[in-house]
Amino acid sequence: MDLQSLCKVILVSALISLVCHPCSVTAGDIVHDDDSAPKKPGCENDFVLVKVQTWVNGIEDAEFVGVGARFGTAIVSKEKNANQRRLVLSDPRDCCSHPKNKLDNDVIMVDRGHCKFTTKANNAQAANASALLIINNQKVLYKMVCDPDETDLDIHIPTVMLPQDAGVSLEKMLTSNSSVSVQLYSPKRPLVDIAEVFLWLMAVGTILCASYWSAWSAREAAIEHDKLLKDALDEIPDTRHVGSGGLLNINTRSAVLFVVFASCFLIMLYKLMAYWFVELLVVLFCIGGVEGLQTCLVALLSRWFKRIAESYVKIPLFGAVSYLTLAVSPFCIAFAVVWAVYRNVSFAWIGQDILGIALIITVLQIVHVPNLKVGTVLLSCAFLYDIFWVFVSKKLFHESVMIVVARGDKSGQDGIPMLLKIPRMFDPWGGYSIIGFGDILLPGLLVAFSLRYDWLANKSLRAGYFVWAMIAYGLGLLVTYVALNLMDGHGQPALLYIVPFTLGTFLTLGRKRGDLRILWTSGEPERPCPHIRLEHQTIEELNDEK
């Protein structure tokens, strides 16, 4: 294996450990009902995000996002039903005593602290306020609940908490002698957004393309293998590695070590998640994306430019490189650099998805599962890995490590780039529907294996395993999105649903058809040696002549 292939294998191995992230929806996930804050009469609202739209001197200005309290009147969901009210700064600022302001159905803004949330709400209500905005002392949102001893609550105004930075902005508006008014409403998310449909098609289409490329390469290698054997009757060369240059076959040990390595890397991401570390991940992603895009383009263009694709030049450290690769590389590098520079603009997700899909297809071309045994070990370990870091890690770290890393909560950015994402088109809260590369790559390894086996065994689509594996993957991912919506947008580990569908279908069909032993051990159909078959044919011809 030359240095270029070795670097490619090392890079994809490292990237795989980064990409097992759950399907999720970003935009400051709604803080919903919580068992740690039980409901009781007068304190039974669901926790919902609230939009606070501002107007300064009658001109529409900034919009802020807060969270509604467990107590008080429920906030209207439609903008047209929300009243626009004047905003007033409380005096005293904490509103722990009756405000000195003369309020006329105004919205009053107060600081957090010094007394209960319900005390502030009661004082604001008594002063004829129409709503209460409480400014947190941190740049995060906080669930406002009732104390256990509060049993007789009669609060009829909505109460919303805003983060500290929103409070600073609102205070500047008020202290500049401007007339400031606000409108509070909490729009509901659609049950299904079309972004999830496109994301599903992207994931399924990526595995479909990668599987056919992998199977085609495997069949070409098998044909070349048979040809070499037929041309060498007297002297059989060692052809075990013909057509396998640059491929990485996973074994059971590496499948288990992958989960250990990925877990260690995830912890490092969680602990070191900062601006500089995200920038480092962006560089790694660009390197992988350039390699993936270059590989895909060279494979595609070589059909029309065979001459330059088959002409090579030796480059130090990289060995023989085709002229077509040299021609394509500048475009791929420029594409990745432009994306990295402008990755924060609204349409940058397109470039990220192109680089990501190219990388995934390339990895599925390079990395192979040799048999069903290895595939079962790999997916089972990934299944446990996903569940542990999404759900169990909450007990150890007081938050879901996987979701925090995927969203980039501690980095001040939109999270790591090893994701496919599409903006939620009809969601009033905006944000993205995302899926981690690992939720495509890991099941994709098994699906690609199924098509390689089908082609080598000369099975039809109906009699083979590929169609059923693809259907199982598609259904597993569909169930993931259903669960995501049922869980009100909370991140879900996609492999929790995909692995049972995909692996279970493969194992069940293999056992039913009697192929399970071959699939489990060799992973390839038994084929007679062409050399021996040719020798038998020669002996039969000699016998006929006699």
* Proportion of residues in extended strands: 5-15%
Give helix and strand order, one letter per element, not per position: HEEEEEHEEHEHEHHHEEHHEHHEEHHHHH
In what order do the strands lie side by side in the largest sheet?
A: 2-3-7-6-5-4-8
**Shape field:** elongated
Descriptive key words:
546 residues, alpha/beta, Glucose Oxidase, domain 1, 7-stranded mixed beta barrel, 3-stranded antiparallel β-sheet, 12% strand, elongated
Would you give an account of this structure?
It is a multi-pass membrane protein. The protein folds into two domains: 31-185, 3-Layer(bba) Sandwich (Glucose Oxidase, domain 1); 194-228 and 246-273 and 340-525, no CATH class. It contains 16 helices and 14 strands. The chain has helices spanning 3-16, 117-126, 164-175, 194-230, 252-272, 275-301, 306-309, 323-341, 348-366, 372-397, 401-407, 438-456, 466-486, 495-513, 516-520, 530-545, and strands at 24-25, 49-56, 59-68, 84-89, 107-111, 131-135, 159-162, 180-185, 248-249, 312-315, 319-322, 367-368, 419-423, 432-436. A seven-stranded mixed barrel has the order 2-3-7-6-5-4-8. α4 packs parallel to α12 (438-456), α9 (348-366) packs across α12 (438-456) and α10 (372-397) runs antiparallel to α12.
List the helices and strands and how they pair.
Blueprint lengths: L2 H14 L7 E2 L23 E8 L2 E10 L15 E6 L17 E5 L5 H10 L4 E5 L23 E4 L1 H12 L4 E6 L8 H37 L17 E2 L2 H21 L2 H27 L4 H4 L2 E4 L3 E4 H19 L6 H19 E2 L3 H26 L3 H7 L11 E5 L8 E5 L1 H19 L9 H21 L8 H19 L2 H5 L9 H16 L1
Parallel strand pairs: 4-5, 5-6, 6-7, 9-12
Antiparallel strand pairs: 1-14, 2-3, 2-8, 3-7, 4-8, 10-11, 13-14
Helix pairs in contact: 1-6, 4-9, 4-12, 4-13, 5-10, 5-11, 6-8, 6-9, 9-12, 10-12, 10-14, 12-13, 12-14, 13-14
